[in-house]
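Re: duplicated header lines in exported structure tokens

Our pipeline writes sequence and tokens for each protein into one text file. With two proteins the header for the second block appears twice in some exports. Here is an export where it did not happen, for reference. First protein block:
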Amino acid sequence: MPSVAQTLLVSCFVGAHAAFNCTLYASTCSGVTGYEAYGHCASTVASNDMTCRETHLGLAAQSGGAATHCPHAQPTATGPCASAASGMLKAFNCSVFAATCSGVAGYQVYSNCASTVANNGANGMACRTRHLDLAVVSGGAATHCPHAQFAATGPCASETLKTFDCALYASTCSSVTGYSAYADCAATVAANAAGMQCRIQHLALAAVSGGAAAHCPHAQPIATGPCASYTLTGVSSTSASGTGTSTSSAAIQSFSGLCLLAFMSVILQ
């Protein structure tokens, strides 16, 4: 275990004078249990103070140091780097994106930016965050706003945002009272990538122990609560609960009529 003096020495001669080495991190830490990869490491390094992580990557690279120090150097840092000033990676700023990019030709609004950020975190949107920073610089919006949008182009096109997990939805929510199945979940997700973000967030909350009853209704095709305002393309408002089939309004009216006749028959007997 390195001494305090050794740690300070690494900080002075490694951390202070060398940028976080993405290649070294991957080669040193990828074999460590619980390894967390950087989604877009170069962008993360360009947008963040990586001093603490640099120090601990240097310690991890020493013989026998990886298991202890790789978690301190990862995107969601633990130990001394979790509480350091540089511990939290910069998150995508929805307000800045709208203010900077809304006037650019071809501007693409985030259907639910807050949920997108919550779903993907700073590590999952590092490239978009970096290019939003570049867009803010005078004259940079036209070039970099398309790289920061939901369906990113250019260098951020490879930064894949989370999608709605159909299998997780069925396994988590099918036993919840009032469950509403997606008639064709994969097709719905494909047609509504940007519009599924609120549902993705609430499906994640539903998957947490005890969260299904509260959050599955927010993740269903005809969502309730905070996701109700995001109407999905190709989803009918007459989707039924439980079976994944649909019931037409005419059938409902007919059923109501039969119930009324039955009720009247009982009353008149």
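Second protein block, exported in the same file:
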Amino acid sequence: MIYTAITDNKDHPRKDIPCFHGENLFTSPILKAKIYKVLPHKFLDTEYSIWVDGNVFPKQPEDWYYGFLKHHDIAVLEHPKHNCVYKEAELCKQMKVGNQDKIKEQIDKYKKEAYPENHGLGQCCMLIRRHTPEQNRLNEAWWAEICRHSWRDQISFPYIFRDKVNYIPHARKKHWHEEHNDNPLFQRKNHARN
């Protein structure tokens, strides 16, 4: 197992794990960090990888997670609140998250292409992948969608991966925000605010 970190030279130097320091191809710090999440095959020479956001702490041994792939090359925990990209876009609008013009343009495109409602939505803070040529191609299509439209990767994820992803079932509860920690996969801590 190889642990890596994306530091963008803002954290103390580490010698215990490989660290990535942000691609200088983008002015956006969001895209600088997101490229590693979406295109791990460009940076890691490995058969499998598990992406976790910086505030996510896995609870199980690495091999335990690969069982979720089953006959897919990617697995993600299903979203705890809803399973629809259109509802996710509406939530982004209500919360004023992301570029609203780009999200609207993206959603209009999906509607025009008759992308179905309630067709799955991932909680993209943890991505379990098998690095196959087909998976790598889909990663690159996902990256193109993010660069063309919104950086909100949960909106483009179900559109790109459609029936190629295993959504890991999530126990649904009344207070869905609590579910980030109420699962056997990981513990999630809130980002520190300045």
